[in-house]
């Protein structure tokens, strides 16, 4: 006869095993995704664009050179702004990871919308909170289970071509710099006058 304690132990082991299996299923690697999208931007190579002011147009669609049409299960597309390797060096918070859900390459959403089997374009104003860095654009495609299944990007496999730079808003204006300069000069003059008056008193 099986005791209640044995049943509890067995149940615990079974739950742990089920949790482990579930965790393994949730893992998705970038190499598992199909590269079947063509992604382009109107940004020129090495172009510098100002955050909060300039716009970028992204165009994406199914790659016609792919051997066979495999987008029947594509339900949603998400286009993101991604850090180029030069802007990831010594920055762990931007590190590229093979496991998709741990990857920090793409952190800024450009657009998310239902997938259609046709070429689409979207014009995006570069947001004010985008940091200064070098970027490219990547599009992820999701299935009905909201799982990434395919992608496409505006650069090559080494992330070395078709890159552009965003110049962040510094928060400083010419008027502020002028005021700062005036106050600095005034401080120096005041200090000099004070020193001169103190010297006369001692004399």
From TrEMBL:
A GO term for molecular function: nitrate transmembrane transporter activity
Organism, as annotated: Papaver somniferum
InterPro entries for this protein: Transptr_NO3_Nar2
Summary of the function given for this chain in its UniProt record: Involved in nitrate transport.
Protein name (record): High-affinity nitrate transporter
Similarity comment: Belongs to the NAR2 family.
Any one GO CC term of the record: plasma membrane
Signal peptide: 1-23
Alphabetically ordered keywords of this record: Cell membrane, Membrane, Nitrate assimilation, Signal, Transmembrane, Transmembrane helix
Spans through the membrane: 174-197
Swiss-Prot/TrEMBL GO biological process terms: nitrate assimilation; response to nitrate
């Amino acid at each position: 006869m099986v005791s209640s304690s044995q049943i509890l132990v067995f149940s615990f082991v079974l739950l742990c095993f089920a949790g482990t299996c579930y965790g393994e299923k949730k893992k998705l690697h970038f190499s598992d995704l199909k590269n079947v999208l063509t992604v382009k931007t109107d940004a020129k190579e090495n172009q510098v664009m100002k955050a909060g002011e300039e716009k970028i147009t992204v165009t994406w669609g199914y790659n016609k050179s792919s051997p066979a049409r495999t987008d029947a299960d594509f339900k949603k597309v998400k286009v993101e702004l991604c850090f180029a390797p030069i802007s990831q060096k010594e920055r762990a918070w931007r590190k590229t990871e093979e496991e998709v859900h741990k990857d920090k390459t793409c952190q800024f959403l450009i657009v998310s919308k239902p997938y259609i089997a046709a070429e689409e374009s979207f014009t995006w104003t570069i947001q004010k909170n985008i940091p200064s860095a070098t970027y490219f654009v990547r599009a992820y495609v999701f299935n009905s289970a909201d799982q990434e299944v395919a992608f496409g990007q505006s650069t090559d496999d080494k992330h070395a071509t078709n890159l552009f730079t965003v110049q962040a808003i510094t928060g400083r204006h010419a008027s502020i710099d002028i005021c700062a300069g005036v106050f600095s000069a005034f401080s120096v003059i005041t200090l000099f006058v004070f020193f001169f008056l103190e010297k006369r008193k001692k004399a």
